[in-house]
Design a protein that fits this description.
about 300 residues; two-stranded antiparallel ribbon; about 75% helix
């Protein structure tokens, strides 16, 4: 009895690890993707767009930052190049990552191979995790392939290694959530087209729609923390605005860089209210990561539940 109880936790841990290592869906997906030409075509397109955008931004920034003496501010060039590369990289990843998961399960239905998966001993968790992991590894390849372009900013200065790491964290969290949303709509829809449309509508809302709505509300009602005299109301407004802005990857990246440059911290920093009170806030990338990872876990659980309903 003691031996059985002692091996039970190890067997459970081995079973969970097997979802990632000994997953036949993951092996099939990753081999099929890298053997075809689509993966290399997407990677080439991704790097060409990034490279062309980087070249255009360099020419534009170098000319605009030229001083009266004819010398350019190289630090400003490096910082602007880095922000521009991360911005276009975030835009590309936000729309490339869901493309690999939107047809993950609906495509099995269309090719009439989902019934074959149902006859195996593969659990819904292993199925969804295998599809998601294979897609995320390719997204990770895209992000790593763009690191040399980001490192160009180091030649000009004005960019620290911490900014690169934090931008990588924000990009990974964004790609992970959008890929999981694609898996969910793929399990929910019978056609890949409808799953893709729903996935991209959701991704567009998080990327563009949410900041436009927030900005419109702020402009319409003239909200500003400094215009409010009540400390409690001002503090509540700051927390609400910070929480809402932390749901958008672009706003999070810009605010995180602002805090890093002006407060010289990646964690907590102090902020002075209009009344003179000093409060402690946290860098936006922290709540952003918590929110996106939590949403990823919730959407992943919903996708697994949907697959179980299909099997039943």
């Amino acid at each position: 009895m003691t031996t059985q109880l002692g091996h039970a936790p190890q067997n459970g841990l081995r079973r969970r690890w097997g979802y990632l290592v000994d997953n036949p869906v993951f092996t099939k997906e990753i081999r099929g993707r890298m053997r075809g030409s689509r993966a290399f075509a997407v990677l080439t397109f991704y790097l060409v767009v990034l490279g062309a955008f980087t070249g255009l931004m360099y020419l534009a920034v170098a000319e605009s930052s030229m001083s009266v003496s004819g010398q350019s501010n190289v630090g400003e060039i490096g910082r602007t190049l880095f922000v521009s590369i991360v911005a276009i990289e975030m835009l590309l990843v936000a729309f490339i990552a869901p493309a690999f998961t939107a047809g993950a399960i609906s495509g099995e239905r269309e090719h009439q191979t989902f019934d074959l998966l149902r006859t195996t001993l593969l659990s819904p968790v292993a199925l969804v995790l295998g599809k998601l992991t294979s897609s995320m590894l390719y997204v990770l390849l895209l992000l790593l392939a763009a690191v040399p372009l980001q490192s160009i900013a180091f030649f000009f200065g004005g960019v620290a290694e911490t900014e690169v790491i934090l931008s990588f964290v924000i990009l990974i969290c964004t790609a992970l959530l959008f890929s999981t949303i694609g898996i969910y709509f793929s399990a929910r829809s019978h056609r890949t087209l409808s799953a893709s449309v729903l996935t991209y509508v959701t991704a567009t809302f998080f990327t563009f729609g949410l900041p436009v709505m927030i900005g419109g509300i702020l402009v319409l009602f003239g909200f500003s923390p400094n215009n409010i005299q009540s400390t409690t109301t001002q503090l509540a407004l700051l927390y609400i605005l910070g929480g809402v802005l932390s749901t958008n990857p672009a706003a999070t990246a810009l605010l995180t860089q602002y805090v890093l440059l002006n407060q010289q911290t990646i964690g907590t920093f102090t902020y002075t209210l209009s009344g003179g009170e000093t409060i402690t806030l946290i860098s936006p990338w922290i709540p952003f990561s918590v929110i996106y990872l939590t949403l990823t876990a919730i959407v992943f659980a919903l996708a697994v539940h949907r697959v179980r309903q299909i099997e039943n």
